[in-house]
Design goal:
Layout (H helix, E strand, L loop, with lengths): L1 E7 L2 E7 L5 H8 L18 E4 L2 E4 L12 E3 L12 H8 L9 H13 L6 H8 L10 H22 L1
Parallel strand pairs: 1-5
Antiparallel strand pairs: 1-2, 3-4, 3-5
Helix pairs in contact: 2-5, 3-5, 4-5
The chain binds FE2/S2 (inorganic) cluster (FES) (2 copies).
């Protein structure tokens, strides 16, 4: 077993883990953060996406011991003072989910992409969303939610720049 300190959603957690255990398993089984879902467990579906130092990352492909000194954000860490993150609100407003299994992964993917300002137009959004799989919605409502969130975050960034 190895001791690792994980910074998750702004809180430090010291956990004893076997080096073979993934970040996704430790988040779910040791820290009780079940919003990070596991689908394929080999890097294809994106259901396990979390932010590691702000970058969308597949938690099923990363060992927990690799995350010492990194800042991790999961879906549980997005809302502030009871208010949903703009990406969460956009999924709600646009019915961007059905079973919801893929939803945390899509939301973390979009938060990372939009907050890094790497998304310039709708084509970029489609490209970003192609990284994750949803078996339910046909992506139309997810794309609609992504457009709303992008517009809101860009407007917010514009205000901050003034
Ligand atoms: S569970 Fe990680 S990519 Fe599918
Ligand atoms: S809402 Fe069901 S897999 Fe995406």
């Amino acid at each position: 077993m190895t001791s690792v300190t994980l910074s998750v959603n702004g809180r430090q957690h010291v956990v004893e883990v076997e080096p073979r255990r993934t970040l996704a398993d430790v988040l779910r089984d040791d820290l009780g953060l079940h919003g990070t879902h596991l689908g394929c467990e080999h890097g294809v579906c994106g259901a396990c996406t979390v932010l590691v130092d702000g970058d969308p990352t597949r938690a099923c492909l990363l060992f927990a011991v690799q995350c010492q000194d990194s800042s991790i954000t999961t879906i549980e860490g997005l809302s502030k003072d009871g208010a949903l993150h703009p990406v969460q609100q956009a999924f709600t407003d646009n019915f961007g989910l059905q079973c919801g299994f893929c939803t945390p992964g899509f939301i973390m993917l979009l938060v990372g992409a939009l907050e890094s300002h790497s998304v310039g137009n709708d084509e970029d959004l489609v490209e970003v969303l192609s990284s994750n799989l949803c078996r339910c919605t046909g992506y139309r409502s997810i794309l609609q939610a992504a457009k709303q969130a992008a517009a809101e975050l860009q407007a917010g960034a514009g205000k901050g720049a003034r």
